[in-house]
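Sequence in, structure out. Go.
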Amino acid sequence: MQNQIPSIVLALVAVGLFVFASGLTESPAAEKTVAEKKPVGAAPVPSTSQAAPAAVAAAAPKPSPGADTLVTPTRPEKPNPPIAAPEPIAKPVVRPTPAKAPTPAPAPPASITGVNQDDQPEKRTKSGKVEASTDINRPPAYGPTGAPVHVIVFSDFQCPVCKRAVEATHQIAEEFPGEVRLEFWQHALKMHPNAEIAAAASLAAHQQGKFWPMHDKLFENQRALDENSLMTYAEGLGLDMETFRKDFADPELRKVIASQGDFARAMGARGTPAFLINGKSSVGWGSWNGFRGQVLREVNKAKDLKKAGKTAAEIREARAKENAENAEAFQRILNEALVPLAGS
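Output:
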């Protein structure tokens, strides 16, 4: 019995090996049986080495919904809202540049005083020895005809800087009574459209002994020197208007204005105000003290010459020869102490 047990074990092992080997390899009959069990119309299963991934996915059967299968209902897709057309880019509006308004001319000084504290004398004085000239045949003046120092001011009624020298014009003869004579000469510049008619109005007033009141009125109203305004000023000064209008329109007065302007230019006074002090010329206005200093130097020179025995006429002649840059033009003053208004 003991000798039969190994034989039985070997037989069982052989059977097991046979069964194991049969499971690894199916018989043709088994394959046929499997084929017969496939549903009709089913596509043949391609070889794993030949089937493309896309084909395998397409051939995979879709599972039928069952009791344990969650079916997600499909919602209809909402159409995308239409894309609005882009708004057109607005072109910048090009507006024409408005023409720049001309810069208004600055207003003249609010008063005759001017803008510098040194423009005018500290105060106007009256010595009682200085009178205004009443000779209508000569330029308007302050001081005696025989003064050793002769001062001419060339001025333009429409010139703002001339306005700053008005107080000095009135005062300089009062500073040196009997020693200084100041004369006012017309120098109406072409650049000032109303300067000439203002000069004519002042000379027409001079014919009635009212030059200095008209002089001040014109400088106080430099922005209103049209002809209508000039007539208003003359009437306000109490002038005989018929005579004033006649003199204002007199061509001879216009010739005097032109002649005095020519003389001013000949003496180097191309601008206004300008001054001629015993023949020595200066153009422009600096200050009252500067102007007074120039006149004072001439007064002192005249005093030295007077001590040497010179007469007033000889003093003026000697100083003019030393001071005048244009002796020929100044000869008119050398020939006589005062130049007649008409330029004779």
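Check: Residues 208 and 240 are 8 Å apart (CA to CA). The domain at 141-335 is CATH 3.40.30.10 (Glutaredoxin).
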